[in-house]
Specification:
The complex is a heterodimer of chains A (about 350) and B (about 280). Chain A is of the alpha+beta class and about 350 residues long. Chain A has helices at about 45-50, 55-60, 70-85, 90-120, 120-145, 165-190, 190-195, 205-210, 215-220, 250-275, 325-335, 345-350, 355-360; strands spanning about 5-10, 20-25, 30-35, 150-155, 155, 290-300, 300-310, 315-320. Chain B has about 280 residues and is α+β, with helices and mostly antiparallel strands. Chain B is built from nine helices and 13 strands. Chain B has helices spanning about 1-25, 30-35, 75, 105-110, 135-140, 160-165, 195, 235-240, 265-270, and strands at about 60-65, 85, 90-95, 115, 130-135, 150, 170-175, 180-185, 205, 225, 245, 250-255, 275. Chain B has a three-stranded antiparallel β-sheet. A two-stranded antiparallel ribbon of chain B has the order 1-4. A two-stranded antiparallel ribbon of chain B has the order 6-9. The model of chain B is unreliable at about 140-145 and about 210-220 (pLDDT under 50). Classes of the chains: A alpha+beta (about 350), B alpha+beta (about 280). The interface of A and B includes residues 143, 159, 185, 186 and 190 of A.
């Protein structure tokens, strides 16, 4: 048994642009314990929501995260709509579902690139991001923004997306499938990738349930946990949604879940575009928020939670957002114990951490 | 010597023959790499080849200063307080680095003089602050006559509520049943949107006599020349009091005289000019 040493990981680390700090307690090359600490990027956005009226607040909430920005905007809007007791028009719900799933495609492709970068496969990283660029262009064409969309508002959508544009979006995405398959097959079949990921950082089903893992991390361990199944947001019930499940619970399984979700999201977008009804996308809403409401939303990284409590005016008394990474950190710490030092970046990356979300 | 060379060549060839299939099986990515060697670059030769903007791209806020009335709605709507409006000084100021391109100001502008341009603010080493001169208060309020608080001539007012609907600042409260008309002077931004909308021309900014309302020519009840009427329903759609019922299929046009506030909006809207008051 070797002498115990503590190695600091982060807040600045090459695999992760975001600041999370881990104290890794090592014995020789093996991690015995990992002690996470966050708090490097707190921006006080929840507090800011109390001095911005509910229309301005959507733009603030969207900036919690640059990757799942549409989901955050939708989550906040859905909780405020719930507190007001209004229901957005059906076409708006369809458009929100489409943009949310498009956001998932863009988020997972970004993550696959970061993962490839994490294990040193630079060209694979570049190819993942090349494909993601097409998705960003679709966003820019339909919403006006590449990363922050500002298209969701309380009561519906600020702009309609024409049926021609939706049809074009469907064609582009169906055409992308072959390109994505070519790249993602490398993740699944390449021996050098398998060496880094198969059997690394196994999280069993029991552990995942016990540690309240959410999103792809839970689904890779065989826990059928996906808010889209519950049909409390969007139109997933009408699209025949089934969660993607893997059993192994290792880094490879978490990657495969996300790869399969990319294709699933494209299928969901195509199905939604086929059935989208015509009609208004916006409606008049009351000028004040009373009461409180809770919404859950399946973000690319897992279940997010939104709570809004109105003050009886245009302002909110309290806005609370709990993001998926927050829930996945215990699972990450669990998998880190007993891992090799060289595998630590892989284990941190495969929960798809978004520290800016976590701290807001 | 030559035998040695031949031997070396044979050994190398054998190694290559063995290694290539192994390497291709090992490196699943080789096909993609070989393919991209013969493709055009995916990147754009920026800035030699400029980027094409989409119609909806949000770049920077632009202003058509001539139409601006300095109401300050944009400054209130801005989530980052990037816009400042000085009505008396005639200045509209935007801090470009603070602007987050959400286009909330563009949406709320009652005069539609703000636009979202495609091109981003040009990069600079200082925090850019753009100031635009706008018409000053006196000139801007000219169309409505005065420059005081909003006033309503209660004698001509029919309490239709169109002004309250048009108000971008939600400063007006109109109750048709109780016959009340109230303005929240703090909230009113004096944009004049209500004055434009008022069917009876009873609104004005204080200090000037309201323009005389057109006297109804008939006996005061709304009538429709059913021979001319095409039952398009535009009158019913625009009626602030929801007093009209039009059924195109059944060819029915009905007016609820009790509900009608005789504002004349339907008369103006009728494409066939078959309505009279």
């Amino acid at each position: 048994m070797g002498k115990r040493t503590i190695i600091p990981f982060g807040p600045q680390h090459p695999v992760l642009p975001e600041p999370i700090h881990l104290d890794l307690v090592l014995e020789d090359e093996t991690v015995v314990e990992a002690i996470p600490s966050i708090g490097y990027i707190h921006r006080g956005l929840e507090k800011l929501c109390e001095i911005k009226d509910f229309n301005q607040m959507v733009y603030v909430i969207e900036r919690i995260c640059g990757i799942c920005s549409f989901g955050h905007g939708w989550g906040a809007v859905a909780s405020m709509e719930g507190a007001m007791g209004v229901q957005a028009p059906e076409r708006a719900e369809y458009l929100r579902t489409i943009l949310h799933e498009l956001g998932r495609v863009h988020s997972h492709l970004l993550w696959l690139g970061l993962l490839a970068d994490g294990f040193g496969f630079e060209s694979l990283f570049n190819h993942c991001w090349r494909i993601r660029e097409t998705v960003l262009d679709l966003f820019e064409k339909n919403t006006g923004g590449r990363v922050i969309f500002s298209i969701c508002k309380v009561g519906g959508m600020r702009k309609d997306i024409s049926n021609e544009n939706l049809k074009e979006m469907k064609e582009v995405l169906e055409g992308l499938k072959a390109e994505i398959k070519e790249i993602t097959d490398v993740f699944i079949n390449d021996a050098s990738v398998q060496n880094r990921m198969v059997g690394v950082g196994v999280l069993t089903k029991e552990e995942a349930e016990e540690l309240c893992a959410v999103g792809p991390v839970a689904r890779a361990s065989g826990v059928p946990q996906d808010i889209r199944m519950t049909d409390n947001h969007g139109v997933y019930g009408k699209l025949g949604f089934e969660p993607v499940l893997e059993e192994a619970g290792d880094c490879m399984a978490r990657t495969v879940v996300r790869i399969r979700e990319v294709f699933q999201s494209i299928d969901l977008i195509s199905a939604a575009i086929d059935q989208i009804p015509d009609g208004p996308v916006d409606m008049k809403v009351p000028n004040k928020i009373e009461g409180e409401y809770i919404t859950r939303m399946e973000q690319p990284r897992g279940e997010a939670f939104y709570y809004a409590k109105g003050a009886g005016t245009k302002f909110l008394k309290r806005m609370r957002v709990r993001t998926p990474t927050n829930m996945n950190i215990p699972a990450m710490v669990k998998t880190l114990a007993g891992a090799d030092l060289a595998d630590v970046p892989m284990l941190v990356l495969t929960i798809d951490p978004c520290i800016s979300c976590t701290e807001r | 010597m030559s035998k040695l060379v031949i031997l070396i060549v044979i050994v190398v060839a054998a190694l290559v023959c063995l290694a290539v299939p192994y390497l291709l099986g090992f490196f699943k990515f080789s096909k993609t790499i070989l393919g991209s060697m013969f493709k055009k670059p995916s990147t754009l030769m920026y800035p030699v080849k400029p980027r094409e903007w989409q119609e909806r791209t949000r770049g920077a806020v632009g202003i058509n200063a001539d139409d601006c009335i300095g109401c300050g709605m944009c400054a209130r709507a801005c989530p980052t307080n990037a816009i400042e409006v000085d009505k008396n000084g005639g200045e509209w100021t935007i801090q470009r680095m603070q602007c987050i391109q959400c286009s909330a100001c563009v949406d709320c502008c009652p005069k539609d003089c703000l636009t979202m341009e495609n091109l981003y603010t040009i990069p600079d080493v200082v925090k850019v602050v753009d100031t635009v001169e706008i018409p000053t208060k006196k000139a801007a309020a000219a169309p409505a006559g005065g420059d005081g608080d909003l006033e309503c001539d209660k004698e001509t007012c029919v309490y239709c509520g169109l002004c309250a609907k048009a108000c971008p600042a939600d400063a007006l409260t109109v109750d048709r049943k109780e016959k009340t008309w109230e303005v929240d002077k703090e909230a009113c931004v004096k944009c004049g949107a209500c004055i434009d909308k008022c069917p009876k021309k009873s609104l004005s900014f204080g200090g000037a006599a309201p323009a005389a309302a057109e006297e109804p020519s008939g006996d005061g009840t709304l009538k429709c020349d059913l021979e001319e009427c095409v039952y398009c329903g535009l009158c019913a759609k625009n009626c602030p009091a929801e007093a009209l019922t039009v059924d195109r299929k059944e060819k029915v046009w009905e007016v609820d005289d009790e509900a009608c506030v005789k504002c004349g909006v339907c008369v103006d809207k009728c494409p066939k000019k078959c309505l009279t008051l």
